[in-house]
Write a structure and sequence with these properties.
about 0% strand; mainly alpha; single chain
Length: about 260
Amino acid sequence: MHRKQLVALIVAASLSLVGCGPKKQPTKTAKPNPPSDAMTNVDTRMSELQQRAAELDAVARQLPGRDLKSDRDLVVQAFDRSSAALVLLGGPSPGGAFRQQLRIIDTVRQEIKTLSPSIADDPTIDSGLRALYNALTSVRERLFPDDPRVRQMLDVVHERVVDLDAVRGPMHSLVVAQVFSAVATTIQMMAGELSGRSAAAEAPTAAPPAPSAASVAPATAAPPASPSPAAPSAPLLPPSIGVPVAPAAPATPLPPATR
């Protein structure tokens, strides 16, 4: 076998091996996670929202903690419950500003976990509470624009947030507890309002009253009463002209009066 033929056979064999190699599988695109039942079922969403609000209220009642570590742990739990409740309030299609506030709250929650005991946590907690207030304001503007009770409760939250700038130390922890307590009350009120709306929307409309038998049966006109025969009238007397009249009896003379 000539050298050229040998080289040709080697090249052909190499090409056949390359062609028989494993083929590339097409890249599969990961399907997005389906929305949770809490976002598609209104009843489930409202039930979880009320549960998160109750959990936040329970944590707020334990604030401030007995020491720095326990206090920070409780604050982290309070931010966690607040964020979970806000996600449910925002619904499946929240706005961009609302999502930004949620990211700030989550960042603050993570930072508090890693803060050194020697670093003051007041500024970090304050920024998270302001984001929490702004997120609740977005919810009120979108879902409760004309509700005076929700507006009044948010005013209370705002007053407590403003108080954060005036206190430090143990008093600051106390005001933080008051902010979370006001937030829990506001979320519980919002959840109650939304549950009432959902129940009213699902309530069946009242059926119209059933028609009475008198209105269903066609009114039958009573047959006209047959005229009763007229009583025979007395015969009219003929006119007196030409009819002989009997002469009147002569008057009896009166006896003469005696004196």
